[in-house]
Structure formats: structure tokens, C-alpha cells
């Protein structure tokens, strides 16, 4: 099968089109013929060596990608009747395993990590859902704020941030989010109640709206210490890239990782339903041929995207 992989860490140029063995579905697994794979910042971290400590037992080549959309073409023993051959699906794929990630024509994943593709979406749109929406869901569940409470979201124009705003509004929370001036309408469209200017002073701007601070903050832009002053005494900040603090005033910093919910089928299927219902907006910035994966990584690192880049494996 065709895959996009790397044998050494480095810049986008290390991504190569390779022929790799087509995997077979084992017990409790399904094989997906991938049509689209979303390109996420964590894929860049893999390419540059950021995930190397988690992959000491995984030999190269390394195949990036955690978001796959396609069609089931093989079902292993012991999989219940929820899934079927020929079904359009989406899946979270763990690239830290020997089989690699979603940048491939075929992936084999646990059946629990697979749910139907949202109705009315194409493969590219569907591929942008699970990893980022599940991360946002996990972040909000970790904060566990009561209905009516206020949550702040940094990086609200990004995939995780945008989903966090939409899910928070669906949960009945009041949302303060950040945006550049030209993105204010976009973030308001996600449902944010208040939009402040993004940047290093975002905490001070949030404090102008919530003088005592907010009880919870989802740090989608990874601002870490810069975002902590926005949080109320005894509140919590959810970090998405492993930061653990320290913080002052009794603020708790809680790192979350989407791998912890990758087999939570009920959570993943709820996100699928929310995409169908329009609660979640599936945003595609650009679709590129799989062979242009290096260019996709260059575009992602250049910034300024509104939506996800998607690699086409169809």
C-alpha cells in the first residue's frame, strides 16, 4: 500500500511516499481503506522528533496521522455488528504504535476507535472531526464546570479551540474566547459570548470581563504561564501539549491527551451526532494529494489557516 512516512526526524522534506505492507485486521479490529487523513500539529511533532520518547520501541519508518476517514474493507474476528464492510467511517489512529498512523491507504484500528462518518459529509470533512473534537470534549469534561459557569478558550480559531467553544456552548457554559480582529466574527459564529484580542496580554483582557478570573480555561494556543492569570483562585487550566505548571493561587494545571479517550466509542459517536446536528463545524482549509504531504506540513507550520489541511488518499 502507499503511505507517507519518514525514517529520520527533520523538516517537511523527510516525508516520503513509500510502499508498505498492507495490514490485516486481527481480533477486535477493523481495516479501513483511507480516503482522507487530516493534518494536525501533533503530526508535525512526530516529524520533528517531539514524540520520540514515546516511540522507543517503534522501528522506522514512522507514519504520521491520527485522523482517518474512509470505508471499512475488512473486519477481524470478534467485532460486533455495529460496523460492517463497505461502511463509511472515521477513526482515531495512534501513530505511536508499530503499525503507524493515518497517512496510508489502509489502517487497522481497534473497532472501539471507529464510528460512522457524519451523515452529509464527504471524506475530507469527516476526517477533521474526531481527534480535535475529542480533545476539546476531554478538556471540558476535565474542567467539569456547572451549567452557567464561564470558561475561557485560547486559540479559538484553531481546530481544538473552535470545537471547545462550540461544545462549551452546547453544555450551557458562558464562553470567553480570543481572536485576532479579522477573526472575531468567525469566533462569534462558533457561539462565543465574549471575544477578546489574542496575544500575550490575553489574560488581562479576560480579567477585564471577569475581574475575579474564570473558573476554567482551555489553553488551545498553548500560552501556558501567559494564560494562568486569567484563571480564578482555585480554578483550573487544561493544557493540551503536556505542560504541567507550576501555577500560583491554587490554580491547578491539568494536561490532557486524546489517547485516553481513543476507545471511548460512546464519546466518539456523540461527537459524530453533534457534527450531523450542526453543533460542531467541520472546517477544511485545503485538500492536497497525499503525495503533497510535505507541502501540507509547510503550510501548517506557516500558520494562518482557518480549518484543517487534509491529505487525499482516494
TrEMBL record:
Group of enzyme by EC: oxidoreductase
EC identifiers of the protein: 1.-.-.-
Signal peptide range: none
GO molecular function terms attached to this record: oxidoreductase activity
Alphabetic keyword roster: NADP, Oxidoreductase
One Pfam family linked to the record: ADH_N
NADP found in the keyword field: yes
Ranges of residues in domain Enoyl reductase (ER): 10-311
SMART domains found in the cross-reference section: PKS_ER (SM00829)
PANTHER family: QUINONE OXIDOREDUCTASE PIG3 (PTHR48106:SF18), QUINONE OXIDOREDUCTASE PIG3-RELATED (PTHR48106)
Protein name, entry field: NADP-dependent oxidoreductase
Amino acid at each position: 500500500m502507499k503511505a507517507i512516512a519518514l525514517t529520520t526526524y527533520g523538516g517537511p522534506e523527510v516525508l516520503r511516499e513509500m510502499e508498505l505492507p498492507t495490514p490485516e485486521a486481527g481480533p477486535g479490529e477493523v481495516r479501513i481503506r483511507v480516503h482522507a487523513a487530516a493534518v494536525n500539529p501533533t503530526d508535525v511533532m512526530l516529524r520533528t522528533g517531539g514524540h520520540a520518547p514515546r516511540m522507543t520501541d517503534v522501528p522506522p519508518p514512522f507514519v504520521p496521522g491520527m485522523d482517518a476517514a474512509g470505508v471499512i474493507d475488512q473486519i477481524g474476528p470478534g467485532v460486533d455488528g455495529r460496523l460492517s464492510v463497505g461502511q463509511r467511517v472515521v477513526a482515531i489512529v495512534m501513530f505511536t504504535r508499530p503499525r503507524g498512523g493515518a497517512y496510508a491507504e489502509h489502517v487497522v484500528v481497534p473497532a472501539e476507535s471507529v464510528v460512522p462518518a457524519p451523515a452529509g459529509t464527504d471524506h475530507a470533512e469527516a476526517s477533521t472531526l474526531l481527534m480535535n473534537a475529542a480533545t476539546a470534549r476531554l478538556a471540558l469534561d476535565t474542567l467539569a464546570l456547572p451549567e452557567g459557569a464561564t470558561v475561557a478558550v485560547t486559540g479559538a480559531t484553531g481546530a481544538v479551540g473552535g470545537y471547545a467553544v462550540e461544545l462549551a456552548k452546547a453544555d450551557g457554559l458562558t464562553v470567553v474566547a480570543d481572536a485576532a480582529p479579522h477573526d472575531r466574527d468567525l469566533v462569534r459564529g462558533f457561539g462565543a459570548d465574549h471575544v477578546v484580542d489574542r496575544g500575550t496580554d490575553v489574560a488581562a483582557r479576560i480579567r477585564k470581563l471577569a475581574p475575579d478570573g474564570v473558573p476554567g480555561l482551555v489553553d488551545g494556543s498553548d500560552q501556558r504561564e501567559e494564560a494562568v492569570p486569567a484563571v480564578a483562585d482555585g480554578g483550573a487550566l487544561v493544557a493540551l501539549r503536556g505542560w504541567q505548571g507550576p501555577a500560583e493561587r491554587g490554580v491547578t494545571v491539568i494536561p490532557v491527551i486524546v489517547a485516553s479517550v481513543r476507545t471511548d466509542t460512546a464519546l466518539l459517536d456523540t461527537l459524530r451526532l453533534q457534527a450531523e446536528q450542526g453543533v460542531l463545524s467541520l472546517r477544511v482549509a485545503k485538500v492536497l494529494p497525499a503525495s503533497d504531504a510535505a507541502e501540507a506540513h509547510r503550510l501548517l507550520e506557516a500558520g494562518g489557516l482557518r480549518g484543517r489541511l487534509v491529505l487525499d488518499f482516494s
